[in-house]
From TrEMBL:
Its main location: cytoplasm. It is an enzyme of class 2 (transferase). Belongs to the class I-like SAM-binding methyltransferase superfamily. EFM4 family. Its EC number is 2.1.1.-. S-adenosyl-L-methionine-dependent protein-lysine N-methyltransferase that methylates elongation factor 1-alpha. This is Protein-lysine N-methyltransferase F2P56_021584. It comes from the Eukaryota.
Length: 341
């Protein structure tokens, strides 16, 4: 278990039902989902009226004409009973308000903003990712990244500087700053919230990382034309899954990310809503869908390389604390790496 999953509701969520369920979507449990389910840690308080932010997001949910899972066409995956319940955390208006608040907090108090999943998890992610990239730079695909000796990794900083890194849904950009400290230098962060990008640029400049590039871009409709050797996702797929149209948007996510990762590159996903096995199953479903499309007789010749699975499982973090629940062992967070074939 990678986090405390929101309790599933009726999978048949029609437009009419979603309007009627707005009050439920902004319940006290939903107000605390960021702190409880996403393990948000912050060193300071918020200046934005949280009730107003909840109200704005609820109005967006109410006004939205979102499709029910039963409306999806037969060639698309239907919503699973375990899909995250629609939440305001899946709406851009919520994040625009949140980062407007954090940007104001930065200008007034110099605060950096929330550290999603906590500083300890971020430290694990960046050190583990560095070891993984170093091993691949040496022509090895490790089974146990945690077993790579740290002194050998320190010698590999020169290899990491050539890796093009993209952090999708970068937020305040602090993950990229930590990666820069590990030796990565070709760093780009994108977010669909302009406030997040403004905050990330301000923090990078203040903290001595002016070379990190930050762009306003929605990964689901990305305008980026280059590919990257390493793509980081820390909570972005989680948020996409909580959109009322989450199942469709998650398919858009995998289509887009598969084009952004360079052949032989790595996608590292950190989630608190999905386990390692669930992320692997999601990738396998995407692979099968892509293979099915590539076998269509009308597939252009220049796309025949797509007949191979786009992604395959590479490794996962094994060092997160675990706990027992319902007879199964798991952790609050899962970090999984996939190799782009």
């Amino acid at each position: 278990m990678a986090g405390i999953r929101l309790s599933p509701e009726d999978s048949e969520l029609s437009s009419q039902q979603s309007r009627g369920a707005v009050s439920e979507l902004i319940s006290d449990d939903d107000r605390s989902v960021a702190a409880d389910s996403w393990s948000i840690k912050s060193d300071y308080g918020s200046t934005l009226d949280d009730d107003q932010r909840q109200t704005d997001a609820a109005e967006a949910l109410s006004a939205g004409n979102f499709r029910a899972p039963s409306d999806y066409s037969s060639d698309k995956e239907e919503a699973d009973a375990e899909e995250a319940v629609p939440s305001m955390l899946g709406l851009q208006c919520y994040w625009d308000a949140a980062y407007a608040d954090e940007l104001a907090n930065f200008h007034e108090h110099g605060h950096a903003g929330d550290v999603w999943f906590g500083a300890d998890v971020v430290e694990v992610i960046v050190t583990w990712t560095k070891r993984l990239c170093f091993s691949i730079s040496q022509g090895r695909l490790p089974n146990h990244v945690d077993d790579i000796k740290s002194e050998r990794v320190e010698e590999g900083d020169k290899y990491l500087s050539t890796w093009g890194v993209l952090d999708i849904g970068t937020g305040n950009g602090l993950l990229l700053q930590e990666l820069a400290k590990q030796g990565f230098s070709d760093l780009t962060g994108t977010d669909y919230s302009e406030g997040a990008i403004q905050l990330a640029r301000s923090l990078a400049d203040r903290n001595g990382f002016p070379n990190i590039s930050f762009l306003v871009d929605d990964v689901l409709e990305t305008k980026l034309e280059r590919q990257f050797q390493l793509i980081m996702d820390k909570g972005t797929l989680d948020a996409i899954g909580m959109h009322p149209d989450g199942p469709v948007k998650k398919m858009m996510y995998w289509d887009s990310v598969s084009r952004l990762v360079a052949p032989g590159g790595i996608l590292v996903v950190t989630s608190c809503n999905s386990t390692k096995d669930e992320l692997m199953q999601e990738v396998e479903s995407f692979n099968q869908r892509r293979i099915g499309l590539s076998q269509d007789p009308e597939t252009p010749k220049d796309q025949e390389a797509g007949r191979d699975p786009p992604f395959r499982f590479l490794s996962h973090v094994r060092s997160y604390p675990t706990f027992m629940f319902g007879g199964s062992e798991g952790s609050r967070v899962a970090t999984v790496a996939f190799l782009r074939n």
